[in-house]
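REVIEWER CHECKLIST
Item 1: Sequence provided? yes
Item 2: Single chain? yes
Item 3: Sequence as submitted:
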Amino acid sequence: MPDDDIPSVRKLVLKPREVTRTDAVARPGDGTEISVPLIHRQNRIAEQRLSLRRRDDGPRPPLGAGDAPRDSPPFAPKEIAPTEEAARPGDGTAISVTLIHRQNRIAEERRGPELVALPRRRMSRRTRDYLFLVTLAGLVVALFALQLPRTPGVLLMGFFLVAYAAGLLAWVMFGVMDDY
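Item 4: Structure as written out by the authors:
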């Protein structure tokens, strides 16, 4: 059976990982390992280079013209000069939450109660159709009962049929049919 040869299977192999180092491995004590003193030393060297470059460029800009002074730490809280005086309690300019609440309460009492007429709640389509079908079933049973002799048994059977139809419709419409 040469026609039923097993097809060749391709084997997938991941490409071998080749890593080429760009930096030499840092050894403790050779000055190339990452450490806090090394970072501080590099920052000092960078500041010295920057100050040398600035001296060559010309006069330095005024202190408030953009950069913070170099002798202050970068994360120190900034000095803020207030433009207005602080309000003192009782002088009329202080913000009082109780006063604001009192003003809101007085404005609400002046306006008076708001009477809003809500629209009448509409009956759902499912409930409307259910009541229509139960009424229709009751009329059909009543018309059928009028054709028979009027005895208590026929009346009882008619009520039973209407109740059975109502229960069956309720089960189908409200139990079986989720999306109506």
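Item 5: Key structural point noted by reviewer: The helical segments are 36-57, 97-111, 125-147, 152-176.
Item 6: Recommendation: ____
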